[in-house]
Amino acid sequence: MALVHDSFKYAVVPWLPRTGENHHAMRARRFMERFTGDERILATIELHDRPYAVWRRTRRRPRAAGRRLDAVLARIPDHALFLRFVEIDAASEAKNPEPIRSLREQMRERRLLSA
């Protein structure tokens, strides 16, 4: 996952919206589908950037952001794996730690993580 998840940023068509099949994470998922059918891995690769996008919207529209996060989390088969991967992806001094703290808190509130 670590080697593939951001490897397809070069393939995104810049003049098209960076969503759906034109998002780097979806392109990475499609690539990995050739090698595994494990939805835990595929969903983690595809959705790894979504919590940050939701976090950015939280200040402007908190209710809508909560619904978006619910929709993302509903697609995740292995919440512990997903959180751990998102934490690792964000583990850089240059990145704001608040989105990860927020995701962890939201997942605990929804009882998606074991104690």
Q: Could you give the topology of this structure?
A:
Layout: H1 24-32, H2 39-47, H3 50-58, H4 62-74, H5 79-89, H6 98-109
Helix pairs in contact: 1-2, 2-5, 3-4, 3-6, 5-6
What is the strand content? under 5%
The rounded distance between the terminal residues' Cα atoms is 25 Å
Class by alpha and beta content = mainly alpha
Mean pLDDT: 89
Unreliable stretches (pLDDT < 50, length at least 5) are: none
- The total beta strand count reads 0
- Overall radius of gyration: 14 Å
Q: Could you give a short account of the major beta sheet?
A: none
Please describe what this structure looks like.
The protein is mainly α and 115 residues long. The protein has one domain (9-109). It has helices spanning 24-32, 39-47, 50-58, 62-74, 79-89, 98-109. The longest helix has 13 residues, at 62-74. The radius of gyration is 14 Å and the shape is globular.
